[in-house]
Amino acid sequence: xxxxxxxxxxxxxxxxxxxxxxxxxxxxxxxxxxxxxxxxxxxxxxxxxxxxxxxxxxxxxxxxxxxxxxxxxxxxxxxxxxxxxxxxxxxxxxxxxxxxxxxxxxxxxxxxxxxxxxxxxxxxxxxxxxxxxxxxxxxxxxxxxxxxxxxxxxxxxxxxxxxxxxxxxxxxxxxxxxxxxxxxxxxxxxxxxxxxxxxxxxxxxxxxxxxxxx
Length: 214
What we know:
It is built from nine helices and five strands. By secondary structure, the protein is of the alpha/beta class. The protein has one domain (19-191): Rossmann fold, CATH 3.40.50. The protein has a five-stranded parallel beta sheet, with helices on both faces.
């Protein structure tokens, strides 16, 4: 396959995935987050690998644009590596959540390709974090690329990214995760502050005297 044909095929696959996404699942996750904010709860984001990157970025935008008290489980590298070193990787996220006093008003958002597999010990750190959230009555949501994992089974609302080409499931899932959490934070039910560039464009296109009051 030439580079050009791979590029075209990957883009075509992305379009097919987008068409197959469940709007109902996306809206259910947004509703869960809106409920969390209304009851004064916090949002904790987590993932591993690319999911950890999404968790950090999403924390920024949900704090700045949506007005949430939000935290990324893996952002404090000193605490994370201390917990991994002393107690192990599997319990590191759950213990971090316990140290943050996660409770029934809060929400855990997980970004994962497989969603964790308890029987095979895959992504045990995420599975244990989900169990910790459920244990205290916190809401759980997230975005996954494979059906049947722990997140898909245990979450209150979970968005499944459809698989079109199995060999691309990781790349496509992580790409769609970025799109989906950006969709969430920009949704009218969650957005609380206009992003910088959009606000500049709005100011530039407004009639003279309507912004800034002269």
